[in-house]
Specification:
alpha/beta; TIM Barrel; 2 domains; eight-stranded parallel β-sheet; three-stranded antiparallel β-sheet; 13 helices; globular
Length: about 325
Amino acid sequence: MKTAVTELLEIEYPIFQGGMAWVAEHHLAAAVSNAGGLGIIASGGAPCEAIREEVRKTRELTEKPFGLNVMLMNPEADAIARMAVEEGVAVVTTGAGNPEKYFPLWKEAGIKIIPVVASAGLAKRMEKYGADAVIAEGYESGGHIGEQTTMSLVPQVVNVVNIPVLAAGGIGDGRGVAAALMLGAEGVQVGTRFLLADETQIHDNYKEKVAKSKDIDTQVTGRTTGHPVRLLRNQMTRKYLKMESEGADLETLEHLTLGSLRKAVVEGDIVEGSVMAGQIAGLVHKRQTCSEIVTEMMDEACSIMKEKAGRFCR
């Protein structure tokens, strides 16, 4: 499949793997890139030198382009931004803040800049400052979320920018890819589906909880703090929501979740840990390789678009 995104990045398929903190490391990123998509390393809150090592390990496993997600709230974001240049990273995606101050540095180095946006206004601003594309991420996604759904956000972003738009949030199979393309996107970013990939180095308890989840099994915490997060419901989310409803302050709530993502991903604590996943989790049940996931999604998307075009359009 050729789209503006595949041509921009010289990749085979317009599928990005989401930059999920504690999840998106070198095994996963390299496997997705080798499968024809764009693998992405997550910086999360990790130290710069640890992320540098992940970049180098990824390069040992693939000769294809891969990206780095810079979480702008990371205390070492400045150092990570410079490291991306030093290590010759092909693509940078960003989240949790405004990346404008890094644009001159990255543009001079020839890095493709693709910020995650949650509004049409921010998408326009990113284009103005030189972004090569944007990822319009809807409310359905796992982890930190915005307020608009993917269905409403993507076409509004497409309408106001001239750069390629990728859709993210609630996309876990070929139907989602086809729908995103019909909304005007030139590609998609997928997170939750890759949680069950064989190459994903997370605790098996985490994978099992995602595999067994249903459509109603996610909850959003942190609405009152201004930092809403979507997770699979467990004892921790119930405790958090109860405290939130009783007016607990931000410091108390942050203390409850301190280290909870690592607890789930690394230690396998799916009771008190943060099991981040999107609303699409109820559709994700199969353990597969990254190559199988990417190929299946693209084959299904192409099949659907050909079938529906013939069925509805005369």
